Amino acid sequence: MRHFGHIAPEVRQRLFHQEPCEFSADSPARLLSVALGATLYSPATRPRLADDIVKQTGRGVVSMVLCLEDSIGDEDVAAGEENLVQQFTELAGRGQEDLPLLFIRVRFPEQIPDLARRLGPAVRLLSGFVLPKFTEERGIPFLEALTVAEAASGRRLFAMPVLESPELMYRESRVETLEGIFRAVDKYRERVLAVRLGVTDFCSSYGLRRAPDMTAWDVQIVASVIADVVNMLGRADGTGFTVTGPVWEYFRVQERMFKPQLRRSPFLEGQAEELREALIEHAMDGLLREIALDQANGLMGKTCIHPSHVLPVHALSVVSHEEFSDAQDILRPERCGGGVLRSAYTNKMNEVKPHRAWAERTMLRAEVFGVAHEDIGFVDLLAAGIPD
């Protein structure tokens, strides 16, 4: 599979200076952690889940979480498990190879080896499990269960812990909790693909809910937690992990308090004013702003609960030609000794040593999401990727 693989090859050639790479569930973890992109959540109880997965594949989705936790009622867990087994078996029988990376969000550690066993041969479609309310104490049993399931199934299985516990919100316990989480994920580093943020649960601790014209970064008590998570778990010194962006809850806005946040000029240049209006109508201007702030603060990818959120995440993850040019210049072998140089776009300073980690991260994102042509912006990528 590949990002933007759902659009025609000739359209990709028009959009990309360097096209997104192909990857599979067997690709290196470092690449997959970035390739997750917009991870679409779906309740495990959906009766036509196999069809849904195939449909979303055709719309550019490359990672999905099938949820047995918060998205379904307590009384539906057994039925959800049974449905997952049936739907995975049906999906495996179709022989389709370009399916998204599929993860199951469980409630209890015991579900991990049990589901891996019940899936039988269809376990080959499974990439791993999402671990809820992760702390060191609660998380270690999940990671131990994952190790057991991996050995029994013969399948490489990843974990994606979700950080959403009140201990992370409360100032007096945050640092100790984060230190414990780091010990747990560091011990099982080869199995932890990414760390996810449960911002809805963070807000719940204080009875908060952000409005559609506010981002998670506007809720200061939430932003402080995310910043501390990135500080301790997202470092660029080789000890860090991919930390994904929080969920965006809205798909349509009936009434708004503040002005839309999308500037008109990029859409006029691309003759896409109708697209701008549609994005505003469906609360996407807030989503686009949050994605930009996620990336500026060290997050990669995003949890999504609606298919319409996927393309904006992917479009804003494409590396611009200017970013690519800067990263290439910084990483040239002859620059290894450091120094300062003017960018090829003659609009900024590139300082080799301080900007090196950024350049390396940018080149990995370029490999996964591609590099846009010099005259291509995110509006062009959005417009090209919208299904007919």
UniProtKB/TrEMBL annotation:
GO molecular function: catalytic activity; magnesium ion binding
Pfam families in alphabetical order: C-C_Bond_Lyase
Cofactor(s) the record lists: Mg(2+)
GO biological process, one term: oxaloacetate metabolic process
Stored InterPro entries: C-C_Bond_Lyase-like, Citrate_lyase_beta/mcl1/mcl2, Pyrv/PenolPyrv_kinase-like_dom, Pyrv_kinase-like_dom_sf
Annotated binding of Mg(2+), by residue: 201
Keywords assigned by UniProt, alphabetized: Magnesium, Metal-binding
PANTHER family from the UniProt entry: CITRATE LYASE SUBUNIT BETA, LYASE BETA SUBUNIT, PUTATIVE (AFU_ORTHOLOGUE AFUA_4G13030)-RELATED
Name the UniProt record assigns to this protein: ATP/GTP-binding protein
The organism of origin for this protein: Streptomyces dysideae
